[in-house]
Amino acid sequence: MAVTASQPGGIADHIHPEPQGFIRKYVFSIDHKIIGIQYIVTSFVFMVLGGLLAELIRIQLMNANGGFMTPDTYNEVYTIHGSTMVWLVIVPMVTGGFGNFVFPLQIGARDVAFPWLNMVSFWMFPPAGLLLYASFLVGAPVAGWTEYPPVSLQGGPGTSMWCAAIFLVGVGTTLTGINFLVTALKMRAPGMTFTRMPLFVWAQFATAPLVMIATTALAAALAALFMERQFGVPFYDPTKGGSPLLWQHMFWFYSHPAVYIMILPVFGIISEVFPTFARKPIFGYKMIAFSSISIALLGFMVWAHHMFTSGLAPFLQLPFMIMTMVIAIPTGIKVFSWLATLWGGKIQYTTAMLFAIAFIATFTLGGISGVFLAAIPFDLWAHGTYFIVAHIHYVLVGGSLTGIFAGMFYWYPKMTGRFMNETLGRWTFWLFVIGLNGTFVPMHWLGLMGMPRRVAEYDPQFQTINRVESLFSFVMTFAILLFFINALWSIRHGKRAGHNPWHARTLEWQIPSPPPYYNFKHIPTVLANPYAFDEPVPYAGLEDELTDSPVPIPAGAH
Amino acid sequence: MRAALAADQFYQETRDLRVTGFLLFMVSDLVLFSSFIFAYLYLRNTGQGWPPPGAPHLNLALAALNSVVLFGSGATIHFALENWKHEKFMKFAGWTLATIVLGIMFLSGQGIEYYSLYTVDHASWAGSGIFGASFFTLTGMHGLHVFAGIIYLTVLLLQATQGKYTFKHYTGLTLGTLYWHFVDVIWVVLFSIFYLI
Ligand code: HEM
Ligand SMILES: [Cu+2]
């Protein structure tokens, strides 16, 4: 197997004719860059919906006796909130979104391995989202995003729609995973050996198999739930010999790897933003790359840490506890490598960099609460309380979403040719960080004091803290609103950025912004890894990219 | 000459991509089967013993015969592709046709098994507890795969007769063969876990 497939005249050198017409160019596009932006935009649209639901939750919780909506509606609202944020926002954003836009450019390819399949993957996503929201019309699922039976067996018809929606979006993600893995293996530019790949590419490379394997396991669990609900085929119903624990095993066998699907690509974003704005080579390139791989592998061996209170056989609990703690090691390696990258760097405090720095702090807090939870005695206390809510929001909002904002500010000039407004960006940043911590820090206390999660009414002693959280959540929502305004406004009015405003060194920055549909006139040759900041960029064959020279038709293309 | 070389390289690399992608697709599919197999083994080992009360009797002899049929088809499809590589079109067509016929025989055998389970033992997908859930779901999924494979091979055979593939460029045929072997291997596992243990 050749390490790199791209040779002059080969498949990677193939230039399609430029697509014509609005539909072929922007709707049913097969261009990875357009598809990436489609994913990003669609995910943000669903983030607005999921965010609205979040604010409904926070309004309900401002009073100990609720009263804003019925407990049944409340159950539907948090279920769809969680499902949206996981499957319609974070997962598609970091894989299909940033993955599609950035990663083929970074390996010097003209597209992914199967462009047409890529389009199909994307078009499973919006209908799946609509299906999920349509479930509100017939009675949405009520058992939380984890949909444990037997409750999920009893919920209204919307639960089956939930199964179908998540299945559909999952198939799309799986196909993307296959596509990316082949792309990473076969489409790299000549000279791009594994140890010369940018760290974002490493992150996508580690994520792709996770996506492929874990999501398929979820598909099986969902199909079984669907069959049981619609046709009465017993898998999970204990009165018919099934087992609710079976669902938990299958669900977490997917969903634990899924948390790494949601964070590994973001690690990749951070690993690009830090060296660029610290003007320093990334510290521990190989350690960061290999820790991604080891996280991906270990991620399959820890799922039962979600089931410590579910009646798991005692001899199984200890290994799962130990493995979970072991996985914190590669994560820690990354955090220390990033900190060492900052050490002694000439740091430029752009908005992207601010978000990346905040990521380190908030994500690490989430990681620490995770290690707490991995300790069985602590988990017995904290399971099912707001401590879990605090943990997942620190890793997903303080981790994934913060990293996504860093990535948006960083790559927006590449996507559009213009900067996002930095002043507005700073406002976004500070309000977001304040809102985020104000909302989620107190949830740790609530959890330790024993406030259960997923309840529409609660003990009055928790009311003050809940009100404070709600106020801060409005601040955070306002910050996100500012981000949207900024992103929309800057498409037309942002300052022009030129092709490489950050003086970054990966391949996507060596070509015009936005890149032409064929990406590179000539596939470049890669001479070293991109992070040696005191040397010239390590590529050959890029001379024509920024000039007016005609686009060559490579030999062998047809 | 240069153009021809480049075209050949183009073909080789496209083939490389498609075969790799197809292998990964089969890995995903394998995970799908594995998940249901896990579910079956889990339910089997955590319930009140196996076979569960009222579970029907499977016809081991029929299934064994059926397995031989399917393994035979694994051999015939192998011969088909080898003959293609040796540029013997008629033999290729014959062996492919034999594979399709064996596939249909396998499905008929499955049909007989299902029919007798239904009429004699009154077993059904939803009505036979976790036995029905695991047995009919898994063998049904596999049967659908065989069915899809029969369609797939038929299409490939038609395309081949119409000259879609050349003796040098035949990625589609390779993929079809891979798929058929995959379906074969899945059956080995299903046969063992339902009929042998
Ligand atoms: C150092 C790394 C981490 C450790 C040790 C860890 C540990 C844990 C444990 C033990 C639980 C189960 C708690 C319970 O339900 O009783 C849990 C739940 C969870 N974690 Fe983490 N975690 C880590 C990082 C992450 C990351 C990076 C993400 C996502 C990006 C994440 C997302 C979640 C989610 C979504 C849940 C659970 C949800 C639920 O029940 O709804 N975790 N974590
Ligand atoms: Cu987990």
Molecular structure report:
The complex is a heterodimer of chains A (558) and B (197). Chain A has a two-stranded antiparallel ribbon with strand order 1-2. By secondary structure, chain A is mostly helical. Helices cover 65% and strands 1% of the residues of chain A. Chain A has one domain (10-540): Cytochrome C Oxidase, Chain A (Up-down Bundle). In chain A, α3 packs parallel to α6 (158-186), α11 (351-374) packs antiparallel against α13 and α13 runs antiparallel to α14. Chain A starts with 21 loop residues before the first helix and ends in an 18-residue tail after the last strand. With 197 residues, chain B is mostly helical. Chain B has one domain: Cytochrome c oxidase, subunit III, four-helix bundle (Four Helix Bundle (Hemerythrin (Met), subunit A)), CATH 1.20.120.80. Chain B has helices spanning 2-46, 60-85, 89-119, 129-161, 171-196. The longest helix of chain B has 45 residues, at 2-46. The termini of chain B are far apart. Chain A binds chain B through residues 5, 7, 9-12, 14, 113-114, 174, 178-179, 181-182, 185-187, 212-213, 216-217, 219-221, 224, 227-228, 231-235, 240-243, 245-246, 249-250, 253, 554-558, and chain B through 2-3, 5-7, 9-10, 13-14, 16-17, 20-21, 24-25, 27-29, 31-32, 34-36, 38-39, 42-43, 46-48, 52, 125-126, 129-130, 132-133, 136-137. The complex binds protoporphyrin IX containing FE and copper (II) ion (CU). Protoporphyrin IX containing FE binds next to α8, α10, α11 and α13 of chain A. Protoporphyrin IX containing FE is lined by residues 146, 259, 262-263, 305-306, 324, 328, 331, 367, 370-371, 373-374, 379, 383, 388, 391-392, 395-396, 399-400 of chain A.
